[in-house]
């Protein structure tokens, strides 16, 4: 709209959803859903506030804090808090919009939201980060609660930062409640939560492989971007299931193995985890010549032939040219561990190949489906908090596996229902996931009077 400032990330996420709805039979069969689309695309509430804190030298510093409470038709707003200098309203609206439908695909009762601040933790002392977290929560605490809005971690917010924020909330509100997820195990956290997004991503792709007749993970060559929480645990689960991981990356560059005889190992990942806790770059990882370090590059055009690509760093990390390179090198599956990891042009490349090559094509899974395991276990943490109990690793992992299977099958069957597919063609998981998530939210909004038409 001409009266609104440009919000490129949000507009990209919105158009990606709308294009799949419009190119399906959904609006032909249910034209009234066009009304719901108008309503769901505007947040219920946007909170913006200043965060004033003191650095170690005693100087006053100020940042912008946000919480986008996008949709609560399915439950309390749920979505992470991101601390990164790139944070702005466009990015948080895109993330919150995606979160609505991602949370719907988990089958759990969670609405969609996102928040954070343009604070950069890199280069800050622990004391400075703690003071920022307390100042941030001092304002955010006015707008959240266990039955209202339950934030979690995201980029720049680990379990440590969640602990500082929770402690501030408890003191300010005089309440001990499940207001944040990703908490410590001793005070309400859930087992498997740190691993959940990466593990869930691998479980989801496992169902893609099985449906496409490509076997399981054994012997697969896997390119992964990122080196944070999602990438770390996706890599560990791939290795556990018999795959060869060939790359990791961060914002400064990529590590690509020199030989399949020396793949990424759990020991490598443990060392990288320690490096990242200290907020150091991959360029400082001492690997004894095992890897080739590519300064300023993403891994996709440098990994050679791969079977699976798992973008797990940040938004728009696979371009059209990189998508074409993955297709050319024979990749069969690409699934987003990051949110909106592929540009729209990259998705167009994958979808065109899916239609052209049919059963032999590359098959793309969007983040709102493939990486919903993290928020799913956040939802399970909320359930445990409500009951004042904790489940075992095995219980949580089994529930996660079931959620990822249901998310895959929901997108698959919805695509078959609403998207014309030629004989032998793999169904569009991006269209099916978008439609399934949208319809579930739209029906709940209709029942609650957020929009009205005869269904």
TrEMBL record:
Q: Which residues bind NAD(+)?
A: 197, 229
Family annotation (InterPro entries): Aminoacid_DH-like_N_sf (IPR046346), Glu/Leu/Phe/Val/Trp_DH (IPR006095), Glu/Leu/Phe/Val/Trp_DH_C (IPR006096), Glu/Leu/Phe/Val/Trp_DH_dimer (IPR006097), Glu/Leu/Phe/Val_DH_AS (IPR033524), Glu_DH (IPR014362), Glu_Leu_Phe_Val_DH (IPR050724), NAD(P)-bd_dom_sf (IPR036291)
What processes in GO biological process is this protein linked to? Answer: glutamate biosynthetic process
Q: Which family does it belong to?
A: Belongs to the Glu/Leu/Phe/Val dehydrogenases family.
Q: Which residues form the Glutamate/phenylalanine/leucine/valine/L-tryptophan dehydrogenase C-terminal domain?
A: 190-449
Residues in the active site? Answer: 114 (proton donor)
Q: Which GO terms describe its molecular function?
A: glutamate dehydrogenase (NADP+) activity; nucleotide binding
Q: What is this protein called?
A: Glutamate dehydrogenase
Report whether Ligase shows up as a keyword of the record: no
Catalyzed reactions:
L-glutamate + NADP(+) + H2O = 2-oxoglutarate + NH4(+) + NADPH + H(+)
Q: Cite the Pfam families for this sequence.
A: ELFV_dehydrog (PF00208), ELFV_dehydrog_N (PF02812)
Which organism does this record belong to? Diplogelasinospora grovesii
- Tell me which UniProt keywords the record has, alphabetically: Acetylation, NAD, NADP, Nucleotide-binding, Oxidoreductase
How it assembles, according to the record, is: Homohexamer.
User: At which residues is there a site annotated Important for catalysis?
Assistant: 154
Entries under PROSITE patterns matching the protein: GLFV_DEHYDROGENASE (PS00074)
Q: Which positions does UniProt annotate for substrate binding?
A: 78, 99, 102, 153, 378
């Amino acid at each position: 709209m001409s009266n609104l400032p440009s919000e490129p990330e949000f507009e990209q996420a919105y158009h990606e959803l709308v294009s799949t709805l419009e190119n399906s039979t959904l609006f032909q069969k249910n034209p009234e859903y066009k009304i719901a689309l108008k309503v769901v695309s505007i947040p219920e509430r946007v909170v913006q506030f200043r965060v004033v804190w003191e650095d170690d030298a005693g100087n006053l510093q100020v940042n912008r804090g946000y919480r986008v409470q996008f949709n609560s038709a399915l439950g309390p707003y749920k979505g992470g808090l991101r601390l990164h200098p790139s944070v702005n309203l466009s990015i948080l609206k895109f993330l919150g919009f995606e979160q609505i439908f991602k949370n719907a695909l988990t089958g759990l009762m969670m609405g969609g939201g996102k928040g954070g601040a343009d604070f950069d933790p890199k280069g800050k002392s622990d004391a400075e980060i703690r003071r920022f977290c307390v100042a941030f929560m001092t304002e955010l605490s006015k707008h959240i609660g266990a039955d209202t809005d339950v934030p979690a971690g995201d980029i720049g917010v680990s379990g440590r930062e969640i602990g500082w924020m929770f402690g501030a909330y408890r003191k300010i509100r005089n309440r001990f409640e499940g207001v944040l997820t990703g908490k410590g195990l001793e005070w309400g956290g859930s087992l498997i939560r740190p691993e959940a997004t990466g593990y869930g991503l691998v479980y989801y792709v496992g169902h893609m492989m099985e449906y496409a007749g490509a076997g399981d993970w054994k012997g697969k060559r896997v390119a992964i971007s990122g080196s944070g929480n999602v990438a770390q645990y996706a890599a560990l689960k791939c290795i556990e299931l018999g795959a060869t991981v060939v790359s990791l990356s961060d914002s400064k560059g990529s590590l690509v193995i020199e030989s399949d005889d020396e793949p990424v190992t759990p020991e490598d990942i443990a060392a990288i985890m320690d490096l990242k806790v200290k907020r150091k770059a991959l360029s400082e990882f001492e690997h004894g010549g095992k890897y080739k370090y590519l300064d300023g590059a993403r891994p996709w055009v440098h990994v050679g032939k791969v079977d699976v690509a798992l973008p797990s760093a940040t938004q728009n990390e696979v371009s059209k040219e990189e998508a074409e390179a993955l297709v050319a090198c024979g990749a069969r599956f690409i699934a987003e561990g990051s949110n909106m990891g592929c540009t729209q042009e990259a998705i167009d490349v994958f979808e065109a190949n899916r239609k052209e090559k049919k059963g032999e094509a590359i098959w793309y899974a969007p983040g709102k489906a493939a990486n919903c395991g993290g928020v799913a276990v956040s939802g399970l943490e909320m359930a445990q908090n409500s009951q004042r109990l904790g489940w075992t690793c095995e219980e949580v992992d089994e529930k996660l596996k079931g959620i990822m299977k249901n998310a895959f099958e929901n997108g698959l069957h919805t695509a078959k229902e609403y998207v014309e597919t030629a004989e032998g063609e793999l169904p569009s998981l991006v269209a099916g996931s978008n439609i399934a998530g949208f319809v579930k939210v739209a029906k709940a909004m209709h029942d609650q009077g957020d929009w009205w038409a005869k269904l």
